[in-house]
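Changelog excerpt

This revision adds worked examples to the README so contributors can see how folded entries look when concatenated. The first example is reproduced verbatim below.
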Amino acid sequence: MAEAGIIRRKIAVARAVTAEGGPGADRGWRIGLARAARDLMKLPLEVQALTVERRSLAELAELVPDRALIAILDGPREGLGAIILTQPILSGFIEAQTIGRIRSQDHVLRKPTRTDAAMMVAVIDAALSGLEQALAEEADLVWAGGFRYASFLDDPRPLTLLLEDAPLRLLRAEVSLAGGLRSGAILLALPAEGRGQRPATMAQAVPSDHGPAFAQALYDRVTGAPSRVEAVLARLTLPLAQVMSLSEGMILPLQEAALDRISLEGLDGRHVADGKLGQNRGMRAVRLIEKSVQPGAQAGTEGRAGAFATPRRTAATAQGQDSGVFPAGDLSARDVPAMDFPAMGAIDMSDFLATGTD
């Protein structure tokens, strides 16, 4: 009981930290900007200062610097935001992409063009994606995640008409490029009201109680795990010396092989079902039958659990394993008609060693 109480207290603390946002968008935006510049432009970027503020739409319009690039962002549930690159940062990004470096002399002030915006799309989306990934388990993901580049404004005046007149969260990053050759601000404005997905927290992933919810979660995990089943036609035991001397043309008799008596077994060799060999869409298949059905019973008593389909060339023959074992495959086929095969009393090793066929 004491241990259960300790675990519950630890989970409660984790929930409280997550609810407060942890490092939040401050750290995530720093990481997103630096990685986008490094990965896409081979450009060192340092965020010297970053502030997170609440602003109105009118205040945002007044904060837009002269000749800055304004990109409109599209987000969850038709939410719109904006990212603003000041002229020094924009010119540094353009130079890094066109000539591979930032020139030491001062840049020429000019009005941003649609070509400039097109060159910034990948950088903006990479930075926003990095922010979203950094907030995967943070509360700030609700308002900062899911935004991408949508369009470009060549004039700041329509900004107040495009964005919703609602409170905004403004991330203002003071940025330095290439060790100080360019410095300026990058402004990211997003709706303050969270419209995105909630973070995948540990508290949501692991039930805090050991009651029905925990049992159901455990059941879903266990039953969803992959499991391999083998369809066994016959098993053959040979001395090691005889196995080492196998060669093309040898015939190995299978005394108890029967096409209507297929055993389905797990990796541990435990018997799980019975079946009969057939065909489905050009592939070998095994139709499941009731365990109580004896060989030669009427087809009307066969179960409808499905069929295990295997390709014409099985994994067992490709790997040189026991030729009497057919690994099971797709479980999705239903009511596969059985196909009669000629009676099998022996297996010709030349079929496997020479041609590799079934």
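The second example, added in the same revision:
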Amino acid sequence: MRLSTRSADAADARWTRLPCLGVLLLGLTVACAKETASGGSGGSGGTATGSGGNGNAGTGGSPSGGASSGTAGSVGAGGSVGSAGSVGTSGSAGTTGTAGTSGTAGTTGNAGTGGRAGAGGGTAASGCAGKTYKFCEDFETGNAGSIPTGWTALNGFGSDSMKGVGLATDQWHSGSKALKSQSMVPGEERIQKSLAALGATATKHWGRIFYLVQSPAPRPASGAVIHVTFAALEGTTENRIVDTVEASNGTHQFLYNVPDDSCCNGSAYSWSFDAKWHCAEWYVDVASQSYRFFTDNTEVTSLAFTGNANAKMSNYTSLAVGAQFFQAPPTPFVVWFDDLAIDDNQIGCQ
């Protein structure tokens, strides 16, 4: 499906194309003591009943950020073994004493419930620790409010560019920080990372990023749209590889776009920004001018293409991340980004 979008200039700000609306979580080995018979007047066997111990309930996990496991409850102590009956005095054979009753085994405590994920809602398996991707960024290095270590500012268009982007601790997908964009001014909110160290992977790779849009997300006026780019590859021109257009009813589409709108495809309006972490994946191959896109492990096949010269793919020099939008929203458009990776093989949404 061919869609119409606008470039990062005045033309984007004027774009009022009506979108197509596609309506889119767990004894004791009882030792029975038996009395022995003895002579005499027949001493009676002693009877003793052991008492069972009670297990303590496991303590629940704390509700702090990140996923933490609760402490398992301690196993209850086993009941004591009944005492053997005393031996009778000499004389006629005494009656065999009754064996002491075994104590009831203590109940095992219940394992504590795992801790609830905190504001970030991520999992311990996320992040870059132990990963072997060609490039990985979990936005944990740097101070809150600043640009993450190893990144530089990417000025957008307009007179008020490069504001409202930096590390934040109020949301995260893994670790304790994420990259946060927040602004009402079109053209802002992006940083970039050089791809020079990737070699050939820069121009043929799989990419993956998680994002979260604050809810409720700003909506455009009736009949209008808000075009928001989340990630782009920078070369001779910009290739917008994680790109969205939101309609006034709150639904949005995904698309591949370039600044002069000469390419390419757009999906139906089947998604909504819902205050949940979502995973976006892309595939690019500059040599064959090819592109594929996945959202939450599902391919959006309507965006795929190969051999399309209008895609204007080139030798990429950097990757841009941050919510750059092209029409002014009525309220700040706030987006968090985390767990970015690039590799020769598809990464998936682990």
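Reviewer comment on example two: Confidence is low (pLDDT under 50) at residues 1-124. Residues 27-110 form one domain.
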